[in-house]
Amino acid sequence: MKKQECGSEGVLASAPSKGRMKSWSIMSSSITSMKALMAILVLLSPLAGQAVRNKEIPVTAVKGESWISHLHKRFSDTSMGKTYHSGPVAPMPGEKSSSGQEKLSLDFAARTMAVHGADVYRLNCRGCHEESGHGTPPEINSVIDPVRATSPEVIMARMKKAGMSMTRANATLLAKQSNTALLDRFHKGGQDMPPFPQLSEPEIRALLAYLRQLAGVPGAEKEQVAINESPAHIGEQIVRSTCHICHNAVGPNPTPEQILDGSIPPLSTLTTRTSLPEFVRKVTAGNPISMGVTAMPFRGRMPVFDYLSEDEVANAYLYLTLYPPQE
Amino acid sequence: MKNIVLILAILVGLALASSAGTISGQVSGVAGQSVVYVDTISGKTFPAPAQHPVIDQKGLVFQPHVTAVQVGTTVDFLNSDSVAHNVFWTSIGGNKKLNHNLGTWPKGDRKSFKFDTPGAVPILCNVHPEMSAYLVVVPTPYFATSDQAGNYKIENVPDGSYTVIAWHEGAKNQSKPVSVSSDTKADFTLSK
What we know:
The structure holds two protein chains of two kinds.
Chain A: H1 8-14, H2 18-22, H3 31-50, H4 67-70, E1 113-116, H5 117-124, H6 126-129, H7 144-148, H8 152-161, H9 168-188, H10 201-214, E2 226-229, H11 231-246, H12 256-260, H13 270-273, H14 276-284, E3 289-291, E4 296-298, H15 310-322
Antiparallel strand pairs in A: 1-2, 3-4
Chain B: H1 2-18, E1 20-28, E2 35-38, E3 54-58, E4 61-63, E5 66-70, E6 74-78, E7 85-89, E8 100-105, E9 110-114, E10 119-124, E11 132-138, E12 143-145, E13 151-158, E14 160-167, E15 174-180, E16 183-185, E17 188-189
Parallel strand pairs in B: 1-16, 1-17, 3-6, 5-11
Antiparallel strand pairs in B: 1-13, 2-12, 2-14, 3-4, 6-9, 7-8, 10-11, 14-15
């Protein structure tokens, strides 16, 4: 499928590597094909820059320590990023992993995507708050009640049910306060929740509309809107909001022994450590990892993000390549 | 002469001390904490206490669930959670005109409110609808909050005849005349 993207059609059509792109699935571990991939990505890079529709906030590199490092938490002591509570289990070594997602498109790096609030939630929030929005209390609070609290209709219905009355003006005032508190949380974060400076105002609005739908606020399904987003910004959201919860931006690559002891590899070495197809498979379907004094393949601790499409995960790889992680 | 005044003063003091008793007993028929208090005593007013009782929001729960204060008391509302909380009430003693929204605020802040009207105040948080607490504003300094089993004890009540009222969330108040002389018993049976 071709899309008119600021001359992208020409670039893609004339790309000498088109034939190689088709064979990604079988060249996963070869270093030479890795280099070919990087060449494609570099070729596409000016394009990805031009495709940024979300002009309010430029795409910026992921920086600094992971959120759990910032909180001085060990991966084993937190529910953060552990979507595997609700998601599938990674395959055991030797087991075949299969992703239920659509296969990677050839032009993933050139396509803008129509992103709805539901997608903003998926890319940024679901890793901790889960599909339902209930999270894993008491560490990760439910988003449902704070979102319902932003609706005057819900507040009035609640008061009526409790046998108390409230004027619409008072309910509206309460709803406004709750809305301000919720927006404040997205922008500034909380004690345990990171802030989300990578999200623009239109994205926050789309997210709020989806959260209202998720929380069962009447009429919310009619508020859903789509935003066109660049591949790099899709990748940025996944990396900064989800991966960066557990992975530091930069740092030394841990040895298999250190990985067994709980070390988590940094994001900076990802694109040199893994090929794009390997990365996509690891994230969307799971792949064994080498751990131990004598390196052995293990299931690993990383959750399987089966709710991310292969294209979206490829965009995360693209983002990490175009915007290398920083100190 | 001075000695006589002193002796008189001591005697009056002793007389006063000996004329204060307690009201104790049990509130039954309902589960959980109740409030028992001496109703308005005609011709008597009491200075508002300087101390500010605290109602905290911690672990998405109001703590304590039931608080009783004398009219005129300022109550401090805290937020010890890492999420935003709100405090509002729709009435005081059933009077809807006394509804108030104290605001929505993050961890660490505290907001105060002076309660000048007696009556039960259902305290709610708009952000978390499952949270609720009760503040019972009573007209005299003679009140007690019972334990979970309903046992209560009101200390330092001067001997005399009073109307004593038992309050419990969702139940009808029950009042009865009580003559206090030293340690007096008064039990209540409430129904919802």
